[in-house]
Design a protein that fits this description.
Chain lengths: ~290, ~600
């Protein structure tokens, strides 16, 4: 079980906020990019043959002598695309456990709000860059989503580049759960321009935030196997911390430029609760 | 600064390997990380072909070098040398005579002694001897400066004269064969007898401050015909200026009168003052509104005697000498019938029942506790028990005895003997004091010597003593002789109000340096208290003058007694500093400046 029942009950009282208009197939509760049948007035346009007589504004016709019809906002569902990074780097320090719970939290929020939720994971099977998981619009899909998120293995080298291209302009909201510790992470964030915004949950372990390495080391990249010799002098550790600070700052800046909210989360027990508090403070979850 | 082990400084060479360790590159350990992305730009250039790197003076290296330097320094045992009178073993002899109470002499001596005691260590052992009327060793061969200081701090001057000769002998007796022993005498020199030869290996620190002093030098009482007592008081003026002084009297703690005295400079004034006081009353005389250089002699005490004579009867042969003795002894009335007498003298004949204080003179049988084993002839006195009040003023060195009984017994105290043959023993039978002379007085030349009436008077006083109301008056420091009834313990109430409970076998109470009234009582197992004698210990008047003089001293064969050098080692301080630096080094080595506050806060919020 990824999420405790009490935490799920808490999520049911909340919903994801949407910054822009959604563009989707089915009606829902989020303002659409199109006009439709809701009660919210949107605009006037000249009457054209075939328009519904009931929408003619007779007050306007009496005052101006022209036939104008009223237009209303359309409300559609919010497609939420959740991308879970399960590459080799997420296997270190058990970050993937926290990542699964974070993805599950967002999925549950969406399903509870009646939004269309679809989960993705990188890397995919048999050398494919990503794999698409189950999707659904109601909490009835939760058991499937939870089981898929729980069982998806951590393996190999992952890249967000391909899935980013697939989801760019999808019209929904993109939620990325990753440590972003991969080459090309800047391009991925720059390339994501979803219509209804999204969220980057930047997950790093405590050991990555404040390393306790000591002595002379040959650091080996768990995904690529690349080695970097390091002597953990105070100067080197200081430089690392500066690089980490810049990394997080730049990730936040690029996320916001792409219309995505950004939250840095330390992995570990109750990471999802800390993340939810952070999202609530930023009014990303209401 | 010098070093006891300078060779240890060679260990500073260990700094070389330490620095080399910092220059050598250690073999790198493999460590897996999530990504090397953030580490690529932060590492310093590495060249595996060069096994060393440029030395960087880090705080860690500096701390470790400092710790090494301090430990090497402590092994080299740095020290400074200071001039001191302390030697490898120093005996502190502190004069606690009455004159040392004058003008803060003893306080100054104590300050100097305590200052020296602070330097006592295992390298500079110390002993402490109290030079009072009865010198005693308080601390012997101690390297514990605190114990030595405690012993010195606990000393106070009393009202007696110091036996400096005995104290110095006691101090010399503490000499250790493996250490030079020096003696430091803290004294005003006093006016008591000193050895003519200089004290070898000694230093005399003289304390001789002096100031004007008035002293009550004599205070006595005698029953008068009117039923009151007449007290005699003498006040000495040890200053050149004439002084007027008021003396107040108290009887049993209640004010009983005052008298004015005008005392010429360097002279004395005397007066007889009648007081309403009965037998056994405590009388105190003290100066009113007067301060001078010596407080101890500003008060005097007495206890009015019983005012009644003891009746003494002679049983047996008797002699003219005994009759003359009894006739000349004050407070003694000769009883015709032995049955009515307070004290019985048995001169030869069979041993009677002991039902009162008794002086046995060569009876036919030995009393309880003694075995008669034979006779010895042509004897001379070879031993007189030192310090015994019975022998006070008695010289028996020229006494010859024709024949004496040879007796043996463990419970009797021989005070005079000829070799193994006791001549005069003291003991107790049925709770009564008994003196036992093993020879016939008329078969010796004792009866024609001046010692006889004194010895007889002392013996009668002793036999009267121990009884309720009997009074003895001696100089401060004189022990109180005790003959404790069997099954009882003596309890002594001191002038200060303190109560001393003695062991059942205690024969003397020696803590009598304080002038005043000591009341003896006896306590049995059921808690019944029986009053005993009252002893008055008065301030020795010769101490009031504050006489001071130099004590002749000379350096010992190895320079003991001369000012030497005290080695004060720094190693404990150096080790302490090294330990503090080690703690700092540990902190420097293990501290990790955390990830910047904002990043951490964001991640863990």
């Amino acid at each position: 079980m990824l999420l405790e029942p009490r935490f799920r009950a808490r999520l049911e009282r909340l919903s994801l906020g949407v910054k822009g208009r959604v563009s989707a197939q089915w009606a829902g509760r989020h303002t659409s990019t199109r006009l439709g049948e809701s009660l919210d007035f949107a605009d006037y346009r000249p009457y054209q043959p075939g328009d519904d007589y009931r929408r003619i504004d007779h007050n306007l016709r009496a005052r101006l002598g022209v036939l104008m019809v009223r237009q209303f906002e359309a409300e559609q569902e919010l497609p939420i695309e959740i991308v879970l990074d399960l590459s080799g780097s997420m296997g270190l320090y058990d970050k993937h456990q926290s990542a699964r719970r974070l993805a599950a939290m967002v999925a549950y929020l969406g399903l509870a709000g009646g939004d269309r939720v679809r989960v993705w994971a990188i890397p995919g099977d048999r050398g494919r860059p990503e794999v698409q998981g189950p999707s659904g619009r109601h909490l009835s899909a939760w058991p499937q989503v939870e089981a898929w998120l729980e069982k998806r293995p951590v393996a190999g080298t992952g890249s967000l580049r391909h899935v980013g291209r697939r989801l760019a302009g999808s019209g929904g909201s993109v939620v990325l759960v990753s440590d972003l510790l991969m080459d090309g992470w800047r391009d991925v964030l720059d390339g994501l321009a979803p219509t209804a915004g999204g969220l980057v949950l930047h997950l790093l372990a405590g050991e990555e935030l404040d390393p306790t390495l000591a002595g002379d080391l040959d650091l080996s990249d768990v995904e690529s196997g690349a080695k970097v010799p390091v002597s953990t002098t105070e100067e080197v550790m200081g430089n690392y911390r500066t690089a980490l600070e810049e990394f997080a700052t730049e990730a936040a800046r690029r996320s916001r430029r792409a219309g995505l909210d950004y939250l840095l989360v330390q992995s570990g027990p109750r990471a999802e609760e800390r993340a939810l508090s952070g999202l609530a403070r930023g009014a990303i979850v209401r | 600064m010098r070093f006891l082990v300078p060779g240890a400084l060679g260990l500073t060479a260990l700094a070389g390997p330490l620095v080399v360790l910092y220059m050598l590159r250690s073999k790198r350990r493999p460590q897996e990380v999530a990504s090397t992305m953030l580490w690529r730009e932060v590492g310093e250039p590495v060249s595996s072909a060069v096994p060393w790197k440029r030395l960087k003076l880090t705080p860690l290296l500096l701390a470790q070098l400092a710790v090494l330097a301090l430990f090497v320094l402590s092994l080299a045992r740095p020290f400074v040398s200071e001039a001191t009178v302390l030697g490898p073993h120093t005996v502190f002899v502190l004069d606690t005579s009455g004159s040392m109470a004058m003008a803060g002499r003893f306080d100054q001596a104590r300050v100097v002694a305590l200052d020296l005691a602070a330097d006592v260590s295992e390298a500079n052992l110390a002993s402490v001897v109290e030079a009072g009327p009865r010198p005693r060793v308080l601390v012997a061969f101690s390297g514990d400066g605190e114990a030595v200081a405690d012993a010195i701090a606990g000393l106070t001057p009393g009202g007696g004269s110091a036996d400096l000769s005995s104290a110095v002998r006691l101090a010399r007796g503490l000499a250790a064969p493996d250490r030079d022993t020096s003696v430091v005498i803290f004294s005003d020199g006093g006016d008591g007898p000193l050895a003519e030869e200089p004290v070898i290996g000694a230093t005399h620190l003289r304390f001789d401050d002096i100031a004007s002093n008035l002293a009550i030098s004599a205070f006595d009482a005698e029953p008068s015909a009117e039923g009151a007592v007449r007290t005699f008081i003498q006040v000495d003026n040890h200053g050149p200026e004439p002084r007027d002084v008021t003396v107040a009297f108290e009887v049993d703690g209640l004010a009983a009168g005052k008298t004015e005295l005008s005392v010429p400079g360097l002279d004395a004034a005397r007066q007889v003052v009648p007081l309403e006081a009965g037998p056994a009353s405590s009388v105190t005389a003290s100066f009113v509104d007067h301060t001078d250089a010596l407080d101890l002699d500003d008060r005097a005490h007495l206890v009015v005697g019983g005012g009644q004579s003891s009746s003494v009867a002679v049983a047996g042969e008797g002699s003219l000498f005994l009759s003359a003795l009894l006739a000349s002894t004050p407070g003694v009335a000769v009883a015709d019938a032995p049955g009515a007498a307070d004290i019985l003298i048995v001169d030869g004949g069979p041993l009677p029942d002991i039902d009162r204080p008794t002086w046995l003179i060569r009876p036919e049988q030995a009393p309880e506790g003694l075995d008669l084993v034979g006779l010895e002839r042509n004897l001379a006195v070879t031993f007189q028990r030192p310090g015994d009040p019975i022998l006070d003023g008695v010289d028996l060195s020229s006494v010859s005895i024709a024949e004496a009984q040879a007796v043996e017994g463990l419970t009797w105290l021989p005070v005079v003997s000829s070799g193994p043959v006791p001549l005069l023993l003291l003991g107790e039978v049925e709770g009564h004091r008994v003196a036992y002379t093993t020879f016939d007085l008329v078969h010796s030349n004792l009866v024609v010597q001046v010692a006889f009436p004194i010895l007889g008077s002392n013996l009668i006083d002793w036999m009267r003593g121990g009884e309720a109301g009997s009074v003895s008056a001696e100089a401060a420091g004189t022990p109180i002789g005790l003959v404790t009834p069997s099954g009882r313990r003596a309890v002594v109430e001191l002038p200060s109000g303190e109560v001393a409970e003695l062991t059942a076998d205690a024969g003397l109470f020696t803590n009598t340096d304080e002038p005043g009234i000591y009341r003896v009582s006896y306590l049995d197992e059921a808690g019944t208290v029986t009053a005993g004698e009252v002893a008055v210990r008065h301030f020795v008047s010769t101490e009031s003058a504050g006489v001071s003089r130099d004590i002749a001293v000379s350096a010992g064969p190895s320079g003991a007694g001369q000012e030497g050098n005290l080695i004060r080692e720094w190693a404990p301080w150096v080790i302490g500093l090294a330990l503090v630096l080690m703690a700092v080094e540990w902190w420097v080595g293990h501290q990790r400046p955390g990830v910047r506050r904002r990043t951490r806060r964001e991640a863990t919020a």
